[in-house]
Design goal:
membrane, disordered N terminus, cell membrane, mainly alpha, two-stranded antiparallel ribbon, transmembrane, RDD family membrane protein YckC, 4 strands
């Protein structure tokens, strides 16, 4: 019994990275570039799988040509799937499947919950802005103190390690 209490005392002496306090009263650790990168790659695989398993067969069975243009029906539907996946998963779960696997979560720096306008801006407009600036918007995660990409910065959100939330 004495050894057990001694071992918990030694665990308390372990130094951890300092938690960051936010305006909403939480303390957490920001997710860095590489964790977010791997989660995003997994999300891209999920979206590509959805398109391959659902959209391609539907277009094939309906006899609709996939087309080559930016405004082809196939491209429009796959873009809707892409943005819909990120918007709906972030709004309803605060995380996509990729973020779930890596234990990450999107949080608002202003409010206690993610609102529709914030999610729509972050996932729709913000991602478009980040991609059109030649991925520099995503590289900001490596350099900004709150580990925010351009889409996070504009939407007042960030991505954290889910296990470090204390409210």
């Amino acid at each position: 019994m004495e050894n057990q209490s001694h071992s918990t005392e030694s665990n308390d002496n372990i130094k951890h990275e300092p938690a960051v306090s936010t305006p909403i009263g939480s303390e957490f650790h920001y997710a860095g570039f590489w964790m977010r990168f791997w989660a995003y790659l997994l999300d891209l695989a999920v979206v590509a799988s959805l398109n391959s398993l659902l959209i391609k067969p539907i277009f094939h069975l309906a006899g609709i040509s996939r087309g080559d243009g930016f405004f082809s029906p196939y491209t429009i539907v796959t873009v809707i799937i892409f943005y819909g996946y990120f918007v709906l998963m972030t709004k309803y779960f605060g995380q996509t499947l990729g973020k779930m696997v890596f234990g990450l979560k999107v949080v608002s720096l202003k409010d206690s919950t993610l609102t529709w306008p914030v999610v729509l801006f972050r996932e729709g407009v913000g991602r478009y802005i980040s991609k059109t600036v030649f991925l520099l918007g995503y590289l900001l995660v490596a350099f900004l103190p709150k580990k925010q990409g351009a889409h996070d910065y504009y939407a007042d959100t960030t991505v954290i390690h889910e296990g470090t939330i204390s409210r």
